[in-house]
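[stage:ingest] chain + small molecule (S-adenosylmethionine)
[stage:ingest] validated
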Amino acid sequence: MTAQPYDRHYQTRDLFGDPLPALIAFFEQLQPGRRVWDMGAGQGRDTLPLARMGHQVRAIDSSRTGLDCIAKAAAAARLANITTLCADVHSLKVAPECQVLLFDAMFHFYKRDRASEMALLERVSNQLSDRGILACAVPANQTTAANLALLHQSAWASWGRLTDVESRHEHTGTLYRFLALEKVP
Ligand SMILES: C[S@@+](CC[C@H](N)C(=O)[O-])C[C@H]1O[C@@H](n2cnc3c(N)ncnc32)[C@H](O)[C@@H]1O
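[stage:predict] done
[stage:export] tokens:
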């Protein structure tokens, strides 16, 4: 993949700081060993702690620089349960092995991106296996709320809500909404 916008930003170590408390709390109460796909994994803000909990994490990003940060940190911490994949999430098919699909800070539903973000969420929701979990952290605001509400009426109409809470990112002070849904057949 050619140079990506985030490559330059990822010269800064731990660009996004600590993970969201609500996201960590959610994954901590899952049975360890879940096969998690971290979509747009960045520098591994979530990948690394999830792997430390014992989950099997596939870190996917279009930034090779971000994935290199993850691979180095995984090697230093002797975490053998992380794999990386350089790919565009818009053209990636969710495989049946994936048990938890995570999108952290990937969706903002800005006008120019809204259609493609909604299409991506609908597609991966359809592809996810039954009993699979979709976890998302999005900025808590009226725009994201309106778009998530539409998904609750369509792609997620029959899904179970495992958690839906607000959580503040200490590094930036931004309030996020973290939700996790289970696909019910
Ligand atoms: C705001 S960062 C969030 C990183 C990480 N999820 C976190 O919360 O720390 C967004 C990440 O998504 C990646 N990304 C954006 N669009 C992508 C795409 N179409 N396919 C794969 N990765 C993408 C970027 O390279 C970047 O690393």
